[in-house]
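Objective 1b. Sequence-to-structure analysis of CPAF-like PDZ domain-containing protein.
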Amino acid sequence: MPPLTQWSHPAPFPTSTSERRGPTEYSGSVTSLPYSKTTASSSKPTASGNATEGPCASVSRLVASFTSSSPSATPTVPAQLAYECINSVPFNQSAAGKSIAKSFDYAHAAKQNLISEHKAVNIKNCPERMANADDRKVALMDSIRPYLDWQTTIEYLADPPAEYASKVQAPFDFWADWDGIYQKVMNGAYTSEYAFGWDLYRSFQKAHDGHFVYYPDSVTLIFSYGRTEPLVSVSGDGTSIPEVYAYSDVLASSFGNISYTPSPLVTIDGQDSTEWLLNFSEYGSLQDPDALWNNMFYLLAQVSLGPTGTGAGTFAGGGRGRWVYPGPCTTLGFENGTALTIDNFAKVQVPFDGITSGEDLYRTYFTPDPEDLGDAESLATMTSSSSVASSTSSSATSTSTIPAPGYPTPLVREKDNLNSGYFLEGEGYKDIAVLSVPSFVGSVEDERAFQAVNTYTINQAVAQNKSKLIIDVSANGGGTILQGYDLFKQLFPHILPYGATRFRAHEALDLIGQEVSHFSGLVPRSLKSNETVRDWVSTVFNYRTDTDVNYEPFDFWAEKFGPHAYGPAPDNFTSLIRWNLSDVLTTENSGGITVSGYLDRSNITTQPFQAENIVIVYDGYCASTCTIFSELMRQQAGVRTIALGGRPNKNPIQAVGGVKGTNDFPYSYILAAAAFPFEYQYLHDAAYYNTTALGEYNDLAILRSTNAVINSRDGIRKGDAVQTPLQFRYEAADCRIFYTPEMAVDQTATWKTVADTAFRGISHCVAGNFSSAGIGMTKRSTARKLGVRRDWDGREHYDVLRDGVWTGMGGVTVGGDGFMYA
């Protein structure tokens, strides 16, 4: 399947304020140009299909014209035209997304993706089992169905704990939704491929689980949508209820050379703006409503990740917002009576050469090549022609000296801005270090550098007598599991991480575990073994990998598998599992790093900061590996937390607002595991396995999607006898702080506000407080307003408004979704 590509964003258009003035571009100084007090429109193409050509032909014509004049930029077309085009693709569920297939050492490639990247591995294989796919009207849903056996939370979604249902998300019956779609397919109710794909996409998205994802190609492959005006939610004084503004107005106001006062937004398309934004936010992947609200807006930490973050916010088309058709235009109404109407756009993500109709689009991108279709048995006969290479570089320095927009110059920075270190400046702040961690790594080549940045920042802080540490995990959607453990162990080397997890127990997992465990008993558990052996011996499917809940080894597979019944249904789950951090094969699951305190990093034994001198700051996006890290820091080390932003009220909010599951498995990895018993056949032959659940797996679901993963592991808190997954636990942060206009443009203002609250007795909390933390804060002091730093440079913000994404870093992987991965 052609990969999604991120090109340049269309040019921004100024927004509506009291005098209708605002910034348009930056060329050495800030400039303002007058524009209408009532409406404005962007300079993007506005043509649509005409009487002589269909919508897809119009898209093709506009793309050809666009690329001839701007060959390196992303083609954009009016949103309505793209929507009409994709809806003209006729429905045929058995169509399976044309693949750009290559031959892989499937197991190894899939495992490398499991460790980090989450890109489906499309494979060329034998067509026997799926040759008649076009005769099966429900082939795609049937292909997805066996992968759902691995999802740990489906029964809990339908009957969650009461506190979760009242404060986070209402009950959601996934199976009822799934069955409804299935019946519509059977009854011929769908007329377009997009209508079916949208319902299927939403059935997963409504679970609000960033590890429970299916992106149908008809929804996510061809177009993505956006708006040219990002928004921001800020409190003018840090205590009053936040209001929503056009980000360009707040940015211009921060320069102090404008003649108008930014006016808050009051309506969107004629609706109350708060109600509209709350409703739209529910299209996001996060579970917590305050986190969903935050992610609607321009946030510096998300922007700092470049194309791998959610950009300028889901309202503007970042993250999951890019898949939601926004209508042909959006009208913003402001409190001062002015209005702005902007034309919504669509990015064209695939070539449109030769496309003149929905049927052409169907044949080109939604029809499988028969040789690309295969099942678990046929995959077992594949031969290797390539493998995934990993980098051994451990450099902690950046290839770019340009800080992320709104960030100060770092002490040290990972080249893709995945983490960075800072020392605060100014009276009262000179003993405070900041470790910015907006990711826990998404690619193997960044693993060692990421660890090195953390180590260097901590060591330099100690060497320069910094006694306090702010850890900023804003925008952190997860990454490599053991990086979360490693950072915890660098900070608290004497604490053994708990981190208990479990899988859903089902037939396929049991059969794979039996076969892999038998194989693993025949070969040495050693780094000297060949790659294939290391790949399989180090997996969770080998009972010798991991420890039990008491940090003791399992003695046989059945002891690890269980099953044990828990939950509202109840459902079957494995025994609790903990990582064996001293395992010689740890590096096979960590992207190549050794967890601090073990093996060749056993010399890390000194705790650099006292727990009461550490605070973690969140924007609600924390998920997956970030959840793991947060759970260890909060529950085992007692570190305090501050959550930023949230909906327009003064209620407590959660720190962790994303998925709290601890591991996701891509469908490609599951399929590779399902192929293992067919390949080795130690315990049973292929004919037997074909009669089991393993015989149901094929790659059609992979070929018809751009991303497909499930939540494979629940996190379980120590001492929880009923084993409620962390996903369904509500836990408010110790303190909630509103964003201010300064914090929307200058990250240092955020860190100093946090430092005031956590360490200096100057509380900015609007809910919760630190007065009982035992550091001398016996009463709430008056918070003072913090301005932007004197060396603040806003030019990079204008680049983001122009391009839709920050591109001032080197070597970043293009993606743009802020995936929840672990």
